[in-house]
Structures are given as C-alpha cells and as structure tokens.
Amino acid sequence: MTERYEYLPHHLLRHRVRDGASGTEGVLMAAINENVSDSDHPHWTELAYIRAASDREFTTEASNIEPAE
Q1: 26 DSSP β-pair partners
Q2: Cα–Cα distance for residue pair 30/8, rounded to 1 Å
Q3: Which of 5, 14, 60, 62 could form a disulfide with 19 if both were Cys (CB 3.0 to 4.6 A apart)?
C-alpha cells in the first residue's frame, strides 16, 4: 500500500471527547490509520485528531479517547 493513511469510521466522530492520556477535551475531528514510520518498514497506528477549545488540533492514540461528560 503506497498510501500513508486511511480514514476510519468512529462512533464518536464530531462528538466531544476526552484524551485519557492527557485529560484534554475537544471534538473528535477524524480517526485515521496512519503509517508513522519514516523508513521502508511501515508502522501503522490508529490516531484520533481532536480539536481543543483553542481551535488547535492534536493527536492521540484512538484507544485513548472516551466520551466527555
């Protein structure tokens, strides 16, 4: 596969979520399976792109997100 990423469906897309690793909250903008390797050997990981209240987006592992209360 020559693509470096693919979008994934996620039930919390466009909902308010919390990053369990940092405690930061925001809106889940995308869930992506991304090749994070810079070598010839691919390393795929599922990332969540979250837009915080500052309007800046950050990433975390998709397994870290949970619905915000």
Answers
A1: 17, 52
A2: 8
A3: 60
Give the tokens for residue 12.
């919390």
Residues pairing with 52 in the sheet: 26
> Count of domains in the chain?
1
Beta strands 57-61 and 65-67: pairing type?
unpaired
Q: What is the pLDDT along the chain (69 residues), one digit of tens a residue?
A: 457 889 999 999 999 999 999 999 999 999 999 998 888 898 999 999 999 999 999 999 999 999 998
CB 49 within 8 A of CB 5: no
Residue 9 structure tokens: 């469906």
pTM given for the model = 0.86
Q: What CATH number is attached to the domain comprising 22?
A: 2.30.30
3-class SS of residue 1: coil
